[in-house]
Design a protein that fits this description.
Blueprint lengths: L3 H4 L11 H11 L3 H14 L4 H13 L3 H10 L7 H13 L5 H14 L4 H13 L3 H14 L7 H10 L3 H12 L5 H14 L11 H13 L3 H14 L4 H14 L2 H14 L4 H13 L3 H14 L4 H13 L3 H14 L4 H14 L2 H14 L4 H17 L3 H21 L4 H12 L1
Helix pairs in contact: 2-3, 2-4, 3-4, 4-6, 5-6, 6-7, 7-8, 8-9, 9-10, 10-11, 10-12, 11-12, 13-14, 14-15, 15-16, 15-17, 16-17, 17-18, 18-19, 19-20, 20-21, 21-22, 21-23, 22-23, 23-24, 23-25, 24-25
Length: 439
């Protein structure tokens, strides 16, 4: 977790008003540091119980090289009510001054937390400081407290997950990251969660140094050159000598699957599952094979298990969502695609999957919003254009007025035609046009 997470202005729970603080930071980021400092000095006086104001003011003090001056201000305010404010600010100031002041930072933030037991942001900043100083037990307690006080705040979840992982509770860490996706996380939240997940769910860190070169070569044959037979040859040789190295068995299963030898692929992946049952890649690999041989129920079971082990595994959401769509389970696909969009808000193909599932479910207004978002961001978005075409076509089927039906058909036709002008090979647009011509 970067130090700025302690000082950063974004977030702080439902009990603060960060708007004016954010305005001051915008001034500072625009280069008007002196004006920002003076503005934030006024905001601190007027919103003395707003943690975001104090964090922003301290950032401005750093920029204007007035940190010592501001520290003296807060030391003079330690008796001012609410008394937690000065201790909170002094804790952050000590933290900003560097690791040598870490003990002083913790002393002040602990005092602030005792003085403000019901304010989640204070416990959050204390938890982050403890986490960065590797005081994992106390960090977990502080972060659990802030999350309990404000369970709807997604930013509290990734650092808590990291603490839980370091304290030997990877299952708890996964639950926190899954809970974050049930909320409305920012891109920063998701990026931090992804960093945590990479630590939790990385079987490929277990490759012994003696086989690293051969293993890497096999992976390149499989993934870069698409020569699975050569990958199998190398991986089989490694597995003969090191049968308990799980990543080798995982990649061997993938290679056999690529060759169409599903029985061997399943056997290798199940063997890997015995070695590393908490590794999402194993169960996703098995799900993909079962999906390919039309064992849909087994595929669903294994995709669900993979997602439980890695709540940020985008490809598993794509695959399971597609399976549900193929089976007509649009109501089950939509929540998966909604989480997929949270994982990466800027992926057009993810938004198209969500919009299409919403449209097929009959939620046309919601679907239209997704497609319009794409077109507003990029007027030549083929996914957005053809998605709008699908929505207009679906509305046309519901419409009884012949003039309105003709108008909607024209709009659908135009949207699909525009998509094909951008990408003449876009199959969804071709299919929509074919349907409109026949109808």
């Amino acid at each position: 977790m970067a130090p700025l997470i302690v000082v950063g202005c974004a977030d702080a729970g439902k009990d603060v008003r960060p708007d004016r603080a954010a305005a001051g930071l915008e001034m500072m980021n625009a280069g008007d540091t002196e004006r920002a400092f003076n503005y934030l000095s006024d905001v601190v006086e007027e919103e003395y119980a707003n943690p975001a104001a104090h964090r922003a003011y301290i950032q401005a003090a750093v920029k204007t090289r007035r940190l010592a001056e501001v520290e003296d201000e807060y030391r003079a305010r330690t008796g001012k009510d609410p008394r937690w404010v000065a201790r909170y600010a002094l804790g952050i100031i000590q933290y900003v001054k560097g690791p040598v002041h870490g003990a002083a930072a913790l002393r002040e933030l602990r005092a602030a937390a005792e003085l403000a037991p019901g304010l989640p942001d204070v416990h959050y900043r204390l938890g982050i400081a403890l986490l960065e100083m590797e005081e994992m037990g106390e960090a977990c307690e502080a972060l659990k407290r802030c999350s309990g006080l404000d369970p709807r705040h997604p930013s509290y979840r990734p650092p808590l997950a990291l603490c839980l992982f370091h304290n030997g509770d990877p299952a708890g860490a996964r639950r926190e990251l899954a809970a974050m996706l049930d909320l409305d996380p920012s891109e920063k939240d998701v990026a931090q969660a992804s960093t945590v997940m990479a630590r939790i769910n990385n079987p490929f860190a277990m490759i012994p140094k003696g086989i690293e070169s051969d293993y890497t070569k096999a992976v390149e044959y499989l993934e870069k050159h698409d020569v699975p037979a050569r990958a199998v040859e190398i991986l089989d040789a490694i597995a003969g000598k090191f049968p308990e190295v799980a990543p080798v068995r995982i990649m061997l299963g993938m290679a056999y699957g690529r060759l169409g030898d599903n029985a061997r692929a399943i056997a290798e992946l199940k063997a890997a599952g015995e070695l590393v049952p908490d590794t999402a890649a194993v169960w996703q690999g098995l799900a993909g094979i079962y999906h390919g041989i039309d064992k849909s129920d087994l595929a669903v079971e294994h995709y669900v298990r993979a997602i439980a082990l890695d709540p940020l595994l985008a490809s598993a959401y794509v695959q399971l969502g597609a399976l549900y769509v193929d089976r007509g389970g649009f109501d089950r696909a939509v929540p998966l695609f909604e989480k997929l969009v949270k994982i990466d808000r800027n992926r057009e193909d993810y938004r198209f999957m969500l919009g299409r599932a919403l449209q097929l479910l009959g939620r046309l207004d919601a679907a239209e919003r997704e497609f319009l978002w794409m077109v507003e961001k990029n007027k030549e978005s083929v996914h957005g254009l053809v998605g709008l075409g699908f929505v207009y076509a679906a509305r046309r089927l519901r419409e009884k007025d012949p003039d309105r039906r003709a108008e909607l058909r024209e709009k659908a036709y135009d949207a699909a035609s525009q998509a094909l002008q951008v990408d003449p090979n876009f199959e969804a647009a071709k299919k929509l046009l074919d349907t409109l011509r026949i109808d």
